[in-house]
Write a structure and sequence with these properties.
Elements lengths: L12 H11 L4 E4 L7 E4 H17 L7 E5 L4 H12 L3 E4 L6 H11 L1 E7 L3 H7 L8 E5 L10 E2 H6 L15 E6 L9 E5 H11 L12 E4 L6 H4 L1 H7 L3 E4 L6 H11 L3 E4 L1 H14 L8 E4 L6 H11 L2 E7 L6 E4 L4 H5 L2 H10 L2 E3 L4 E5 L14 E6 L21 E9 L4 E7 L4 E3 L2 E3 L1 H8 L5 E11 L3 E10 L7 H8 L11 E4 L12 H7 L10
Parallel strand pairs: 1-11, 3-4, 3-5, 4-8, 5-6, 6-7, 10-11, 10-12, 12-13, 13-14, 24-25
Antiparallel strand pairs: 1-2, 8-9, 14-15, 15-16, 16-20, 17-18, 18-19, 19-20, 21-22, 23-24
Length: 539
């Protein structure tokens, strides 16, 4: 085979920061902090501080291959670690503080982390867990100099002692860069080990017009946590495209987010549906406008159509769904329009964009198969198991001897979905959440999306519970907006005309809807809580 005669420059995360400093060095980065003034600098100074952080870690004995844990919010210091740690050849484990104590201890110990860098919010947590973190030798507080923290070094003090002009080492592009753990709703969390190559390729693809579509004119504010699959890759996509970058810190409430959007000219943001449901309620309640905000990308669970419609028609904000998972880095598909849709008119375009998770993105292949493993037609109707493969899709979980993919490299996502002729994916359920009633399937996601349009409904969750005649039947759990009265009769009157009659939930309950550590509806807890609601049930 004839080899090409091009340079074999490795794809490295440090290369993204080097490029951003050279091409967009004066583009602003703004960060909220905990009990500190708003931080402002640019990509040029970020690059220097990132090099200082890497030098400080080297001085403390961190070597290539070591795992380092962060326990931090969306701040500039946390983002610096996302470049400094992999840039020096070590691996950053972004711990999820919303996991239970047991799961946090498990992930840090499973990672074998040598150092823990944490925000001051987590001082009590670190003190509580410290004796159980068996591999951690060094603790570093991400805070201003002089902030008291017993038994911990100070990040800013360490940086001040280092130079910011040291060159980055040239690594193999397949070197491990990040260790992200699944939320662990069933069993222990599982580690997904990203490489430099996978992160850079993901960032290049995610910035395309058919995906996030960033440009140097955008001001980007990620409300998806940096510890949640690297904030969906946005900390790498934004610098590559010269975007202004705004970090909201730990404050994800609608009033705080709205202030940053207005003050910093935010044009693009993203996060789980819960954040934007609350933000939309704030706009409606306060009579405010969305200001400069133009686009939202929402993932974690299906986007309620009613919310997307109000954002676009009343506030001029386009809502785009994204589907992915920790195991896909996480980009799988994004719901962006195409010429084929546009030719059918705006109504057809909106219908597809608002009811599908997204369309094919270069680099991530999709396949839907039936129970026998045969690929099903791309007709938008025939559902099956969703399989994925590509350069940023998992091959094996960290410290597992077993491959996570089949012989052809396909990873089973655990989702049930359809694909249509235009390449758009629609999720109908998670395998573990599928409801089978009288031998027929019911889509919990479809019912939830419709119920979310009912006035007063803040969160809608559908789960299947045992039924003495039909094996399983759906129940609907509703969490209403504060100070809002909604009745069972109102909810059923709203959803019944929009669904197949036998899909109608057997019960509508009003209660807080539990969420997982990544902001998804915790259906496992709901099933446990309401297992016997359609009694009598044997056993």
């Amino acid at each position: 085979m004839l080899q090409g005669l091009m340079q074999k420059t490795p794809l490295l995360i440090s290369g993204i920061m080097t490029f951003a400093a050279a091409a967009h060095g004066t583009r602003e980065v703004v960060s909220r902090l905990i009990d500190e003034p708003l931080w402002r600098y640019d990509y040029g100074r970020m690059a220097a501080r990132t090099a200082q952080a890497a030098a400080a870690l080297r001085r403390l004995g961190v070597t290539p291959g070591d795992r380092i844990t962060s326990l931090a919010w969306n701040t500039h210091r946390h983002m610096e670690l996302m470049y400094a740690v992999p840039g020096m050849g070590a691996v950053l484990h972004t711990a999820n503080p919303r996991l239970s104590d047991e799961q946090i201890v498990f992930t840090v110990n499973h990672a074998g982390s040598k150092a823990l860098l944490f925000d001051k919010t987590f001082l009590p947590m670190v003190a509580r867990l410290r004796e159980r973190l068996t591999s951690v030798r060094t603790y570093i507080l991400l805070a201003a100099p002089g902030t008291p923290a017993e038994g911990a070094l100070n990040y800013e003090t360490l940086l001040a002692a280092e130079r910011g002009d040291a060159p980055w080492p040239v690594l193999d592009e397949n070197t491990a860069a990040f260790l992200c753990y699944t939320s662990g709703t069933t069993g222990d969390p599982k580690g997904v080990l990203y490489s430099h190559r996978s992160v850079v390729l993901h960032a290049l693809a995610a910035g395309l017009e058919g995906a996030l579509g960033f440009s140097a004119f955008d001001s980007v504010m990620p409300c998806q946590s940096l510890y949640h699959a690297n904030a969906w890759g946005v900390p790498f996509v934004a610098p590559l495209n010269g975007c202004k970058f705004v970090l909201p810190g730990e404050k994800m409430d609608p009033v705080s987010l709205h202030a940053l959007i207005m003050d910093e000219g935010v044009t693009f943001s993203g996060g789980v549906p819960t954040i934007w449901t609350m933000y939309l309620a704030h706009l409606e309640r306060s009579g405010s406008t969305a200001g400069p905000l133009q686009r939202l990308v929402i993932a974690g669970s299906a986007v309620p159509r009613a919310m997307a419609e109000v954002f676009q028609t009343k506030y001029g904000v386009k809502v785009r769904q994204l589907w992915g998972m920790t195991e896909t880095s996480p980009l799988g598909v994004v719901s962006t329009p195409t010429p084929q849709l546009a030719a059918r008119g705006s109504e057809a375009t909106d219908e597809t964009i608002w009811t599908r998770q997204g369309r094919l993105v270069f680099g991530c292949e999709l396949k839907i198969v039936d129970e026998q493993g045969n690929e099903v037609p791309h007709d938008g109707q025939t559902s099956g198991s969703l399989l994925v493969r590509g350069p940023w899709v998992i091959e094996k979980y960290y410290r597992s001897d077993k491959s996570a993919v089949d012989a052809e490299g396909w990873f089973d996502t655990g989702d049930i979905a359809t694909l249509d002729a235009d390449g758009f994916l629609r999720l109908t359920d998670r395998k573990k959440d599928v409801i089978k009633s009288g031998g027929e399937w019911i889509s919990s996601i479809d019912i939830e999306n419709i119920a979310m349009g009912c006035p007063g409904v803040r969160i809608a969750a559908v789960v299947g519970v045992p039924h003495p005649k039909w094996e399983e039947r759906p129940i609907l759990v509703i969490e209403t907006h504060p100070d809002t009265a909604v009745t069972k009769e109102q909810v059923l009157a709203y959803i019944t005309p929009q669904i197949v009659r036998w899909w109608t939930p057997d019960e509508v309950l009003f209660a807080p809807v539990p969420l997982t550590a990544t902001g998804k509806i915790d259906k496992k807890r709901l099933r446990e809580q309401y297992w016997n609601v359609l009694a009598p049930v044997a056993g």
